[in-house]
Amino acid sequence: MEMITNVFLDVCMDTLKLLPFLFVTYLLMEYFEEKAGDKMTAALEKTGKIGPLIGSLFGVIPQCGFSAAAASFYSGGVITAGTLLAVFLSTSDEMLPIFISESVPGDTIARILIMKVVMGAITGFVINFALYALKRHRHSGHDIHDLCEREHCHCEDGEGGILKPALKHTFQITIFIFIITFAAALLVEGVGQERVAAVLTNRPIIGLFIISLVGLIPNCASSVLITQLYVGGLITAGQLMAGLLTGSGVGLLVLFRTNDKYKSNLQLAFTLYAVGVIWGLLVTLMGITL
Quick check: 284 pLDDT over 60? Predict the structure, then answer.
């Protein structure tokens, strides 16, 4: 019972930290739709080419709010798939605070952060180029109006301006995130760090595939677990990068909640996993140390 209570409180705190990001995101999206729709579309066409670089730089900031915001922006047709994945890949979540608390050398932290930014940006540019070459739409195919219809927030009625629908979007997404995150946290806590470490230790390649799956768990607990395993010398640099790259906080949760193109969502999730594995394998095969 104590474990459940502790997990509940931790998830409450993590969810509360997301509220400002989610609210500002939906407030901006409502503004774009109501006040600056045409101008915003034109601006995105001009800046979309460097979107992955900008996304990876913002994503590396140590919290998962930007990944949630990016997922909502993608679902609303604001950013490209490449930019979304760049944010997901560079998201640091709880890695940095743990490294600092464990007195990990500053140059080691800097190398990891730079690698995440570079890997995220490169992947984002490649994804955007591939989609452009295949002549597929670079965005989700939706706009904020579609999102409003799915969430039944009645944005079009004009009551309360942009504040009311933004608050409603924020509330709905927050409840969804809390429920799923709480379940995921209980799963991670129930399995235990020792069991995960036993599977990964002395299995550099197989462990890399496994830890990439751990990274996909939509909860800050996954990045905490991966970082602590590395600090304890139980996983390799390649495994660390693979797990941290796939760990996008609650980004995937928000994506599946806000975007009704589930096949596309699954493709993005699989791409995130595959990219994390590939980069992790490259780090391992090249003998890169951190």
Answer: yes
Question: What is the CA 237 to chain-centroid distance, rounded?
Answer: 21
Q: Are the beta carbons of 18 and 219 closer than 8 angstroms?
A: no
According to DSSP, residue 156 is labeled G
Cα–Cα distance, 113 to 124 (Å, whole number): 16
- CA-to-CA distance for 226 and 242, rounded, in angstroms? 10
pLDDT score of 35 more than 70: no
> Which amino acid appears at position 174 of this protein?
T
Q: Which residue carries 């990891």 as its tokens? A: 112
Cα-based distances in Å from 153 to 25, 162, 171, 229: 16, 11, 11, 43
Buried/exposed 159-194: b ≥16 CB within 10 Å, e otherwise: eeebebbbbbbbbbbbebbbebbbebbbebbeeebe
Looking at residue 282, what is its pLDDT?
A: 95
SS (H, E, C) 43-55: HHHHHHHHHHHHH
Of the candidates 247, 279, 275, the residue with the CA atom closest to the CA atom of residue 91: 247
Q: What is the Cα–Cα distance from 252 to 266, expressed in whole angstroms?
A: 10
- Long-range residue pairs from 39-43, CB within 8 A, at least 24 positions apart, any chain: 40/78
The whole-model pTM stands at 0.75
Token couple for 152 = 């039944």
